[in-house]
Amino acid sequence: MSVFDFEPILSNIRQFADVATDLAELQEFCVSCIAESRPHYNWVGFYMLDTNDPDVLVVGPFRGAPTEHVRIPVAQGICGAAVAHGDVIIVDDVEADPRYLACSLETKSEIVVPIRVDGDAIGEIDIDSHSRCAFGGEDRAFLEECAAIIGHFIGQHPR
Ligand code: SME
Q: Which of 10, 22, 62, 86 is the most buried (most CB within 10 A)?
């Protein structure tokens, strides 16, 4: 089996980050690139802490089915746990994780990767797949690099 090469996607995102004028534009570009390149990433989106209420995540640009979870308290969900602890969370089988907030009945696995600015988690990239165990170390490393590009951009263009 050939190994997927994530570098061209990262290169596109890095180049776009150099010219993007605001965060929403860069996030739109990211979700579009990532979803088109990885068809088994069935929902790809951002959640960012509400600048007026840092105990709540607000959905940002996404690709995939509309979600009822447009605002997620930091105390809830896999999304909340990832930003609260500042750690990547990979869930191989969402049915087995009591924290899971269902977006689509088809979702089987999920990865959430925090976005940090000056060391603080201020948002995240959230990906769902219709397959169990869809996310491994290479997906994690790729998405951590995406999150680092976004975090660097926010550091230079404060919200
Ligand atoms: N599954 C997430 C909620 C977001 S939707 O998947 C888009 C969670 O458990 O926090």
A: 62
